Amino acid sequence: MINIRKLESELWESADLLRAGSKLTSNQYCMPVLGLIFLRYAYSRFKMVEAEILKGRPSRGGRVMPVEASDFAAKSALYLPKEAQYDYLLNLPENIADAGLVNKDGHKMNSLGEVVNNAMQLIEEQSEQLVGVLPKSYTDFSDELLSELLRIFNNSALDEVGGDIIGRIYEYFLNKFAKNIASDDGVFFTPKSLVKMIVNIIEPTGGVLLDPACGSGGMFIQSGDFVNAAGMNANSTMTFYGQEKVEYNAQLCLMNMAVHGLAGVIKSGDEANSFYHDAHNLDGSCDYVMANPPFNVDKVKAESCESAKRLPFGMPGVNKNKEVGNGNYLWISYFYSYLNEKGRAGFVMASSATDSQGKDKDIRESLVKTGHVDAMISVGNNFFYTKSLPCSLWFFDKGKADAIKDKVLFIDARNYYTVVDRTLNEWSEWQLKNMNAIVWLYRGEIDKYNALLDEYRTVLGSDKPFAEQVHELSEKAKVLRAEAKKAVEAADRGDRKKTQEEYDTKLAELTEVLTVAKEANWLYEKFGDGEYHDILGLCKVAYTTDEAKGDDKDGISIEEKGWSLTPGAYVGVAPVEDDGVDFEERMSEIHRELLSLQAESNDLMDTISQNMKEMGL
């Protein structure tokens, strides 16, 4: 089995090393590199489909009939002319100028950059969806650099198209570039765990999906994965529509979709500015709407918004310049308006929008009274690559079950996440499933909750109570750490590093299993065999109005909270668990450690000072 994480980081390190050596910025490097990953993907798929076609191929005079573009069209696959095939580009002579190569227009080519540009143009001629999308700036690269990049992405592991390895690599690179292109504010990339949370709760199965601020297409990719994982074919059951004002981002999106084998209609440029245009005429027609729109946009022309409609609850506040000072509630209104009578929406929004006042509050009241607000989730800091702001996830469902028609689920997930590094948090796969499980129980879908418990038991390989497994695995980890320390100390100097690495690997594997056990226990402790409960500090189901609350004395309504949709206003604060540490004793220890470190620091400064004197400095 391929270690995909190792492969991702190795490919990135190799490519980024070249970027640093080339003096190109991440911005200049991003699109061409992603284009090469696309080229490698297209070739892998081409070879796979070609092999299928040749299986039953007739022959004439002992010769198998050559494959043609029409054969690929019949299988909904991309045909690659010879000059656009990856192995052709890899095996070109070093001196292109002397090779006598001509491009598709018959002009002589003098560099590898020209040859790769020509390959991109040839591919665009084969696919209407890709026309004008693929990068053609490869003459900015030296032949040596481009040749090395082609070699880096010629890793045989990338041929596993069925496992979507290349899709993973593309997303990994996109993620890395988003972090590097901080000056761009990461506008084109929504962190994967937020996208997955939205897709998991929306649960797309088939129909029309719109993302009116689609960026690099993460919502489409994850929705496609979700549908395919459910045993259906995303391209035949889903129709993807996107709007993206920035053409560069729309190109990333179309390449991303193509790399994942998805087709969609993406519009870009001024006609795709969602504030003023319903570019696909989808108002009231969507089964699903998913988005991470730009927050807090100001100076939006009010008259243009009104004429573009999609405002079922009226306009947000308009200033004397006839501008909407904050576009958040334009987005919220549009997302609701796009839905058909059973549609679901999920989107990322600035935290401030759950409680904003004035016209925003009036719109929110109208929205709550529809009964179509399904769930609200608070997300903590550091989930985005270039901003540390918290945000909220909003969910609408026009087809809610009668039992929850007048209720809304609030989840405060600000303290539930995995730390990736100092500036980035995310939800792990198991944390995503756990939050999804809370939504299932609120919806009465107990079978899905029980299936997750079974999945935990299967992965852990045990039917013992989860708390017991956590204890046993924690003890094993403690023993293994002690064993590692002794083994490293006892090893010969030359073998210590190797011994340490062997134990590190064992510890990492054990820690991974322990983490799964802890997440299983986290869920089971709260909801047992599958009954929803409000959990202080985590989740609360509130009624929409006082009338809906009726005589429920323990209940709370959104109306009595002034139409706030802030989860923290409902779930309360979790009690602080006693960690069993004596505060005074621990403070004394810390003080002693600090004094010891200060003493070491002083000794070190004396030594440095003495050495400098001896050197005559």
The CATH topology of the largest domain comes to Rossmann fold
CATH architecture of the largest domain, by name, is 3-Layer(aba) Sandwich
CATH class placement of the largest domain: Alpha Beta
Secondary structure tally: strands: 15
Q: Proportion of β residues? A: 5-15%
Taking strands numbered 1, 2, ... along the chain, how are they ordered across the largest sheet?
5-4-3-6-9-11-10-12-15
Cα distance, first to last residue? 58 Å
Give the biggest sheet. 9 strands, mixed
Fourth-level CATH superfamily of the largest domain: Vaccinia Virus protein VP39
Number of helices: 21
**Residue share in helices?**
40-55%
Low-confidence stretches: 182-186
Q: How many domain units? A: 4
Any idea what the radius of gyration is?
A: 28 Å
Shape: globular
- Quickly give the structural class: alpha/beta
Written account of the structure:
The chain has helices at 4-22, 26-55, 69-73, 86-90, 112-124, 143-152, 165-180, 192-202, 218-229, 234-237, 247-259, 302-308, 328-338, 359-369, 429-443, 446-460, 466-490, 496-527, 546-549, 568-571, 583-614, and strands at 59-60, 63-64, 207-211, 238-244, 264-268, 286-291, 300-301, 323-324, 339-350, 373-379, 391-397, 407-412, 418-421, 424-426, 539-543. The strands form 4 sheets. It has a 9-stranded mixed beta sheet. It folds into 4 domains: 4-168, Ferritin (Up-down Bundle), CATH 1.20.1260.30; 186-444, Rossmann fold (3-Layer(aba) Sandwich), CATH 3.40.50.150; 461-531; 583-617. 48% of the residues lie in helices and 12% in strands. Strand 13 (418-421) and strand 14 form a beta hairpin. With 617 residues, the protein is of the alpha/beta class.
